[in-house]
Amino acid sequence: MAIETSQDELLALLLAVARKDRQAFQRLYEQISGRMFGLCLKLAKQQDLAEEAVQDAFVQIWHHASEYHNDRGAPLSWMMTIARYRTLDLMRSRKARATDGDGPLDRVEDHREGPLDRSLRSAGEQALTGCIEELSDVQRDSILLSYYRGMTHDELAVALSSPVGTVKSWVRRGLMALKRCLER
């Protein structure tokens, strides 16, 4: 069993992984894979899917460790967020495959630009990115999962392991903060 690792030690390992240090990557895996698997299993409720999500998350960490910076939260939070998103992506992918072909209208897609797309484009991608980075981690996760992944408040509550009312508050307060930021 891995000894509890400090955020400073995780940061040092992550920086070494960014330099493609395989030993640091192995140590990082040993330190957090158990916790990461627990999160993925809690979300997916399927061992094989959780294992795949952990593997995919570590591949992403290997390739994107150089993109980590302190503004994105603590190293452990950043890596667990990658695992959470990967788990949710795999769950959706499997759900979509299970229902493919059930009916001709099940997978009709509207490729037209929606109001959110127009709004985001007009606000300016750089301004929006800067404003999103100013949000707290939970607000940012809630909004991104809701608007970009199409999750309902109930799905967000499960994914973020928080009560529905709390999730709704995060989304509402995050959107208000984004609006204020973009109006500046």
From TrEMBL:
The record's annotation in InterPro entries points to: RNA_pol_sigma-70-like (IPR039425), RNA_pol_sigma-70_dom (IPR014284), RNA_pol_sigma70_r2 (IPR007627), RNA_pol_sigma70_r4_t2 (IPR013249), RNA_pol_sigma_r2 (IPR013325), RNA_pol_sigma_r3/r4-like (IPR013324), WH-like_DNA-bd_sf (IPR036388)
Q: Which keywords are on file for this protein?
A: Sigma factor, Transcription, Transcription regulation
Q: Domain named RNA polymerase sigma factor 70 region 4 type: which ranges?
A: 126-178
- All copies of domain RNA polymerase sigma-70 region, residue ranges: 28-95
GO BP, one example? Answer: DNA-templated transcription initiation
Where do the record's region annotations for Disordered lie? 96-119
For this UniProt entry, the molecular function terms from Gene Ontology, in alphabetical order, are: DNA binding; sigma factor activity
**What is a single Pfam family found in this protein's UniProt entry?**
Sigma70_r4_2
Q: Which CDD domains match?
A: Sigma70_r4
Q: Which family does it belong to?
A: Belongs to the sigma-70 factor family. ECF subfamily.
- What's the protein name? Sigma-70 family RNA polymerase sigma factor
Organism encoding this protein: Marinobacter confluentis
